[in-house]
Amino acid sequence: MLNEEKSSHVAGNNLLFDFTVDESTNSVLITREFDAELSLVWDAFTKQEMLDQWWAPKPLVSKTKVMNFEAGGRRFYAIVWPEGQEYWGVEKYTLINPKTSIKYLASFTDKNENINAELPTSEWELNFSEQNGITKVSISVYFESLEELQKMIEMGFKEGFTMTINELENLLSTLNK
Amino acid sequence: MRRDIFQAIADPTRRAIIALIALQALTPNAIANNFNTTRQAVSKHLRILTECELVKQEQKGREIYYSLEIDKMKEIDKWLEQYRKIWETRFTQLDNLLSTMKRNKKC
Question: At what angle are helices B39-51 and B12-23 packed, to 10 degrees?
């Protein structure tokens, strides 16, 4: 249990959601099923106008500035906060097998795309497969060390906090009705 | 030097020590008997784990027993839970987008 913090449950509609942290390989492994055919899910992960609609947890917004979806290409994008602050990052594609797998290196940058060496760079691998109209996406995120993973989680913690506030607002507005 | 819990669990021997004392409180000798390493090396790992407050010591007679600080371990879970929640939200948003796309396709 210590080597693998595993949490697996079924999302709505009997779709699998699996989230595992493997401390022995400094990695996070995420598997999720979607009730849609592979080509649709592939588009949602690889076309900037679609990616921007779901990548940032609300109320944050994903804004892709440059995206060349090809090996050697990149996606340069910002996560925009409701107050207007922008956090920039770049994903450099190292391998693309259409409708099968994607590999890229993710780094945090400034708004001029200069990589911030103090924040973690991580290696991502995404695998796609379809069975009976259900598409499974497996995502592995590898960090250089557990400290890097922790930094990533710390950044996520900020996002998570915003989300909690947002959920609270939703709840309050429901109660007010 | 600041010690943090992720640093503590980064080492395989320390993870094994944690797993061992999660079952019962043990003396440093009893812990060292489980490893092909020196008593000194185990003591060093125990010191780091103690500094991170992942383990606590208790004096019983002439022996010191080490046991796990369960609450501190739960802190790690809390961090991970936050990260998991972000993914959960992301994927719910993607579910919604996919169902919209499917509907538009049919029209």
Answer: 80
Nearest CA in chain B to A23: B10
Give kind and range of the element (H or E) at residue B41. Answer: helix B39-51
d(CA A126, CA A140): 7
CA dihedral of residues B37, B39, B41, B45 (deg, nearest 10): 110
Residue ranges per structural domain of chain A: 4-176
**C-alpha of B73 from chain center:** 5
pLDDT at A156 exceeding the cut of 80: no
Phi, psi of A174 (to 5 degrees): -65, -40
CATH number for the domain formed by residue range(s) A4-176: 3.30.530.20
3-state DSSP call for residue A96? strand
Could you tell me how far CA A55 lies from the centroid of its own chain?
6
Give the phi and the psi of residue B41 in degrees, each rounded to 5. -65, -40
Global pTM value = 0.71
pLDDT means over runs of 10, chain B (107 residues)? 64 81 88 89 93 90 90 72 83 93 80
Mutate to test the interface with A, among B3, B93, B98 (most CBs of A within 10 A): B98
Both structure tokens of B22: 């999660």
CATH architecture of B1-68: Orthogonal Bundle (1.10)
Q: Is B29 helix (H, G, I), strand (E, B) or coil?
A: helix
Q: Is there a contact between B77 and A36 if contact means CB atoms under 8 Å apart?
A: no
Domain ranges of chain B: 1-68, 70-107
